[in-house]
TrEMBL record, chain A:
Belongs to the sodium:solute symporter (SSF) (TC 2.A.21) family. The chain crosses the membrane at residues 20-37, 57-78, 90-111, 132-157, 163-182, 194-212, 249-269, 290-315, 343-370, 391-413, 419-441, 448-469, 481-499, 539-556. Its main location: membrane. GO terms for molecular function: D-glucose:sodium symporter activity. GO terms for cellular component: plasma membrane. It is a multi-pass membrane protein. This is Solute:Na+ symporter, SSS family. It comes from Asanoa ishikariensis. InterPro entries: Na/Glc_symporter_sf (IPR038377), Na/solute_symporter (IPR001734). Keywords: Membrane, Transmembrane, Transmembrane helix.
From TrEMBL, chain B:
Residues 85-106 are annotated as: Disordered. The chain crosses the membrane at residues 27-47, 59-80. Keywords: Membrane, Transmembrane, Transmembrane helix. The lineage of its organism: Bacteria, Bacillati, Actinomycetota, Actinomycetes, Micromonosporales. It comes from Asanoa ishikariensis. This is Uncharacterized protein.
Length: 557, 106
């Protein structure tokens, strides 16, 4: 059996000089983009928001790529192997509706109010304490997650190529540092677009050869039926009336927990994502950014979940608790077993690109929030624009150095990625609840903004800590995050309502352009030729994306 | 910085980068053409070991040709419709072109 070939070498891939040439070419290009982007930087808005000048297809692909990090590819293939088709919920319920909502409903407020970051919106809509709370928690979370991405990259390179952990961590950090501190957001975004295509070029051959091996999609489904996963692994919604399904989730939990609170929290208020849309060149392009991103997102399961399922039926013993055969190694195992030199080099490049895409998104989000929302707002006001570009570059270095530190801390934990993901979703849910009330209810007061965000975060955190401490008996991490997010959401709604009743609202003229129903947003004022074309209508683009996400469920109901 | 400053500053700064921006399509096109050529050549000379490993598919050949096609399409796209942001014709004409090209830049 071919599967046995790699046993003695573990996961080690047999790269030759040619694969290294392909890898090197990529990194030369990435750094070249960084240096070329430097020429375009004259103002801080150029550095942090690409001068708000990018076309929608660029920001849209960057939007999807910023999410196509390590956790996404490795993690979703692992979920595909473990839970089967139900993993599509993370895409079709758990991403596309939120992206459509962001583009159609929320983007006019973000882009129209000319804010430079998500925390800045909170400052205009509520007050400075709310702003500072969110800016600080975002900055800390981004640095932590950048560290986890870095550590995950090092782990994979250690397993696949035999590079020592510390070399990978420092080399990965140095490359991201170089291209972001030199070229700013333009460099990050352009590289994300490039990464998107390279990642696909690496994943598609794995999927194609894998499908050939198992006899096409029908052969795959037959083999999954005969595997431990069984028939249940081939259905998305079957048996979700109870928790008797691979994911152990009720349909209510899937729709409201994953599809609403967690997903809307992540996609609509996470600045590492929203920043890509804010760099678009006009309102129309900003609104289309998440909508264009929704289309690749619809199809990405084909190159993550399908390979995961192929791995579970072709790699004997996949699903071990530890060692080389853990679910997380589904994609690396397929690369080892199926790819000859050449496409193997492309696939390794794509994998490394995806780690860097995730980390670059965190770092570029961090340096913007640190510079605009913390340094410029609370520490050193009224300095020259050049001063803030310099602060941004120093913040990039600082963020990455701290990220390296957290990467080594992460190395001390066995399961840190789950924890960070849970913590992050816990921070996002109360933030989203605060946003949604603040955007739609003009009576919500500044004090209510601060206290509801704080109380929601505390409730979510408490739920999580009580679960860790064993006081709350949830079955899985996933169930905990559904409940934690849901409780936080309700807490924010209640706190916002009660506190608003007892405090004075902001005058309406201060809320124009920030709250629905008060006017002040010009959707058409900055249109360029061609934006009026029917196929650029946000409603149409969003509607088709939603329809497709429903249609795609039909064959795998 | 007060909120009023923030608004007016942004309006002035808008698009100042656009005219100087290089085109990412050229970068994607260039890298994929190079990748495509290399991998296609590898595929053309693949031995039976490589083909057997890939389940009998000449994957290097096909992937190489596909990447070459994608790269050429990007270059073609850029050639047929050069930067549709304000034309990068030099810094002196930026404002005029913005005003002319975009019906109403606020």
């Amino acid at each position: 059996m071919r599967e046995g070939d790699g046993v003695d070498g573990g996961l080690r891939l047999d790269l030759n000089w040619l694969d290294y040439v392909l890898l090197t070419l990529y990194f030369v290009t990435v750094l070249g983009v960084g240096f070329a982007a430097r020429r375009a930087i004259r103002t801080s808005v150029d550095f942090f928001l690409s001068g708000r000048s990018l076309p929608a297809w660029v920001t849209g692909l960057a939007f999807v790529s910023a999410n196509l990090g390590a956790l996404e590819i490795i993690g979703m293939a692992a979920n595909g192997a473990q839970y089967g088709i139900m993993t599509t919920h993370y895409y079709w319920v758990g991403a596309v509706p939120a992206m459509v909502f962001l583009g159609i409903v929320m983007m006019p407020f973000y882009y129209g109010s000319k804010v430079r970051s998500v925390p800045e919106y909170l400052r205009l809509r509520f007050n400075r304490p709310t702003h500072l709370l969110n800016a600080l928690s975002f900055a800390v979370a981004q640095v932590l997650i950048a560290g986890v991405n870095l550590y995950a990259l090092a782990l994979v390179l250690d397993a696949l190529l035999g590079w020592p952990l510390w070399i990978s961590i420092i080399a990965g950090a140095a490359i991201v540092l170089t291209y972001i501190s030199i070229g700013g957001l333009t460099s990050a975004i352009y590289n994300e677009v490039l990464q998107f295509f390279v990642i696909l070029a690496g994943l598609i051959p794995i999927t194609v050869i894998g499908l050939v091996k198992v006899g096409g999609i029908n052969g795959l489904f037959d083999k999954v039926r005969d595997s431990d996963l069984g028939e249940a692994g081939l259905h998305a919604w079957a048996n979700t009336g109870s928790s008797d399904n691979p994911l152990g989730a009720h349909w209510l939990g899937i729709v409201f927990g994953l599809g609403f609170v967690l997903s809307f929290g992540y996609w609509t208020t996470n600045f590492a994502e929203v920043q890509r849309a804010l760099s678009a060149r006009n309102m129309s392009a900003a609104r289309r950014t998440p909508l264009i991103a929704a289309y690749p997102k619809l199809f990405i399961p084909l190159v993550t979940i399908i390979p995961g399922m192929i791995a579970v039926v072709t790699v004997q013993g996949l699903g071990a608790d530890e060692g080389d055969l853990v679910y997380n190694n589904a994609i690396p195992l397929l690369m080892r077993d199926l790819l000859p030199n050449g496409v193997l080099g492309i696939a390794v490049t794509g994998l490394m690109a995806s780690f860097m895409a995730g980390m670059a998104a965190n770092v570029s989000g961090f340096n913007t929030v640190f510079t605009y929302d913390i340094w410029q707002t609370y520490v050193r006001k009224e300095r020259s624009d050049e001063y803030y570009i310099r602060v941004g570059r120093i913040a990039t270095v600082g963020g990455i150095v701290v990220g390296i530190g957290t990467a080594f801390i992460a190395a001390g934990f066995s399961n840190i990625m789950n924890y960070i993901q849970a913590l992050f979703s816990v921070f996002n849910a109360p933030l989203f609840a605060t946003f949604i009330v603040g955007m739609f209810w003009k009576r919500m007061t500044a004090a209510a903004g601060f206290w509801s965000l704080l109380s929601g975060t505390v409730v979510a955190l408490a739920t999580y800590l009580l679960y860790l401490g064993g006081a709350l008996p949830f079955d899985t991490d996933l169930e905990e995050s559904f409940w934690g997010a849901g409780l936080a959401f309700v807490t924010v709604l209640v706190a916002a309502f009660v506190i608003s009743k007892f405090t004075a609202p902001k005058p309406e003229n201060e809320l124009r352009g920030l709250v629905r129903g008060l006017g002040g947003i010009d959707l058409k004022g900055d249109v360029v030729a061609g934006d009026a074309a029917w196929y650029r209508s946000p409603l149409l683009l969003g509607g088709i994306a939603l329809a497709l996400s429903l249609l795609f469920y039909i064959p795998v109901w | 910085m007060s909120d009023e400053d923030l608004l007016s500053d942004n309006e002035e700064e808008r698009r100042s980068a656009a005219a100087r921006m290089f085109d990412i399509r050229r970068v994607i096109g260039g890298l994929f053409v190079v990748y495509g050529v290399i991998v296609t050549l590898v595929g053309a000379f693949d031995g039976s070991a490589a083909i057997d490993k890939a389940q009998g598919v000449r994957i290097n050949l096909w992937a190489g040709l596909a990447m070459l096609t994608v790269g050429l399409l990007f270059l073609l796209w850029q050639w047929l419709s050069p930067a549709d942001a304000p034309e990068p014709t030099g810094s002196s004409g930026e404002d005029v072109e913005n005003g002319g090209g975009d019906a109403s830049v606020r």
